Amino acid sequence: VQLEESGGGLVQPGGSLRLSCAASGFTFSSAVMRWYRQAPGKARELVATITSNGGSTNYADSVKGRFTISRDNAKNTVYLQMNRLKPEDTAMYYCNAVLYWGKGSLVTVSS
Fold first, then answer.
1. Does residue 88 contact residue 16 with C-beta atoms inside 8 Å?
2. What distance in Å separates the CA atoms of residue 53 and residue 106, rounded to the nearest whole number?
3. How confident is the model over 83-94, as pLDDT tens digits?
4. Distance CA 24, CA 21 (A)
5. Regarding beta strands 77-82 and 67-72, do their DSSP bridges make them parallel or antiparallel, or are they unpaired?
6. What is the overall mean pLDDT for the chain?
7. Which residues contact 37 (CB under 8 A, 6 or more apart)?
């Protein structure tokens, strides 16, 4: 099983980024996918969840209305569109499926 995140980087407050997570080694189209994040010195927190067919999503209150999770089952990829980014969104972002984790993609929001 492999989960590989990409798309992180440095962005100014108010900017946008889109994270991608390419999955392989399991039946992606049957898996609930999640994005987590972990800021320095803080616990890992669940950011967003999407069901296997993409029909239902959930978000942490801190990102609701700014972040959008989506998936393309034909490409075995899940995305996290992040808009109106804030400094407090700075964290390592991880893709998760069941017990599997990617290595993370660093998002830094700073002027």
1. no
2. 27
3. 999 999 999 999
4. 10
5. antiparallel
6. 97
7. 44, 45, 47, 89, 91, 92, 93, 94, 107
